[in-house]
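Sharing a chain and its predicted structure for anyone who wants a worked example. Both blocks are below, sequence first, tokens second.
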Amino acid sequence: MNHPVLSSLLPVVLLITLGFAVGRLRLVRPESTRDLSNVVFLLLAPALLFRSMGGVHVEQLSLRPVAAYFMAAFVIFFGTLWVRGFNRSGAVLTMATTYSNTVMIGVPLIGLAYGEAGMVTLLMLVSIHAMVLLTSSTVAVEIACAREQAARGEGSTNALHILRTLGRALRASVINPVTLPVISGLLFAQTGWAIPSVIDRPLQLLAQSFAPLALMLVGITLAQTRVGHHLRGALAVAASKNLLHPVLVALFAWMLGVTGLPLAVMVVTASLPVGANAFLLAQRYRASEELVTASVVVSTALALVTVSVTMVFVG
């Protein structure tokens, strides 16, 4: 029970399982899940992220681990477009195959497994994760949509529209409850000030509530989602996200000379399941919605195995 992988992963599995049971028993109704999600993302997550970065100085940070992560992600990104075609569905799936659940699962898991130092490495990635991948996928979908319209004779590619969409995507990826607290906390740390105890204590209590509620929310969502006849396609997406992504991150990290804790954090983060933003993108553009939803479910279930194996190897 004291094995580092088991001691950090078992609480994650148990809390997700508990959330799954809560969802199955309908102790939390489907219509209430969004309210619970708002509490987790709009209140608890910002408290945790700001407090975690509030004592980190820029000289402690290294961009090489993050570079290895995104190099691997973009190999899969363009590989997905090549295999599935440069169309609306293929562009949406670029996000499903590259976008990790870094907050709801990643933050609790990395915190338990690698402590405060691991969290600093993870939050460096979190601060630009959505900005890079969400923006790239949004631009790819917009270009694909414009190509489809031109092929139907409904107009030509509109560069101004794509630039406006890019601007909206960049703004949304920065001004959100995940990225903004990370950047704000890092900026606050550079002042050299300490958070007053009267503010820090409530932040600490809110931060401590994030992990159990976020993991239970994952389980509740799984219980309320059906895979249907998209299992085969979802397995292909999950294999790319859960298996290929960490292997490529390890390869690029080796090429860049990344070792030790940063290597472990980036590889484990790459093995995490598909994040919910992939579903939001599919829903927005009405492309592969059922497949992406099934992929999130299958990828999360598969992660119980893939994350365990990955943690053993990087351990």
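Comments welcome. The chain has one domain: 4-314.
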